[in-house]
Amino acid sequence: MNRASFIERVIPLSFSLLLFGSLPLSANETLIAAGEQQALVCKACHQMGPEGVAAIGPPLWGLAERSIASVEGFQYSEALKQLQGQWDAQKLDAFLSSPSDFAPGTKMVFPGVKDPGARTAIIAWLATQNPTPPDWITESADEPVKSPGEGILAPGKDMALVASACSACHSLYLVTQQGLSKERWDALLTWMVEEQGMDELAPDDREAILVYLSTYYGM
User: Which of 20, 39, 158, 212 has a CA that sits 20 to 30 A from residue 148's CA?
Assistant: First the structure.
């Protein structure tokens, strides 16, 4: 595995910048690494990689090489099935901004990624999830990329992880309105997994999320 692939797929952005301080990432590599972090919100419902299959949503591998709403066996909404052509940077940017505006009637309940810099980063990372990565560039390519949750959640360790996990299904403003003990946050996460189809979190991630939520939005 070459250095660029190792950084993009394995090492978190913050660690890679420390480890390779003497060998700076290119602008594109940095954007892709940021996009991988931002795309945690996608992984709540979509599987990645060549072996990905349809789950809550269709797999995201190979988006550039297939028509919109074309994964065999997945029950797309009529709104998406009526769209023509293949995904490109402009269509993905509009869809990620507001799925319901892009395709009124879509089954995707995700509220959207409002930060244009974050959308640009996600699209740059999605481009790498193709056998032959396309050159996907959006109009917001020069926009700074905010950390997930920046300006909404309380600054603190694991804010980005919490933002990515929670914003997959609802507005982060809803999180800020809660006041739950760690035990009640834990019960809520269990309910989200068992009743709402949320993917089970890795134990370390779950504990980090619970500590953050109970610290900043606890009783």
Answer: 20
